[in-house]
Amino acid sequence: MSVSRLRVSPRLLASIALLVAMPVFASLKVGVSAPLFTADASLAGKPYSFSLAEALKKGPVVLYFYPAAFTAGCNIEAHKFAEATEQFKALGAQVIGVSKDDVDTLHKFSVSECGGKFAVAADPKLVVAKSYDAKIPLVGYADRTSYVITPDGKILYVYSSLSPDDHVKNTLAALKTWHDAQPKG
After folding, report:
1. Within-domain flag for 120
2. Which of 77, 81, 134, 174 could, after both became Cys, cross-link 164 (CB 3.0–4.6 A)?
């Protein structure tokens, strides 16, 4: 009886290694200006146009990129952001999720997975994701990357991880530290 060996091409192994390592290397750096954008969005199933410039006039923004609506990790992350919406609001911040999904899909996602608590924006050509270095190379999806952007348009905090587990906790902690350091009055 012979045992056959599984043969995996070196090219495939290199591609897998690159994809696994990329979230560590991809993202804009803390302190740089956040690229401004406007995108079709949905909040509680209702369409509107999201403008980062307009949102920043009201306070900090937590901008998070996720691969695709209605997938396991993205559903978990959306639920966690929805559960923490009041904590973000208490710190003067709003949350916006961005994916390559079309607006019709996001209307449903904003109701079912986001609980109508925060907006999600459509980036079907990944233009916004690319401007934030949040696109997975060689794959047509956004990376799971979260940013905290201060009202002056600067990136305060960046967190990239394919796991949805710590995005909310980490962005809340960064936002709270920033909020507590702001002059009162």
Report:
1. yes
2. 77
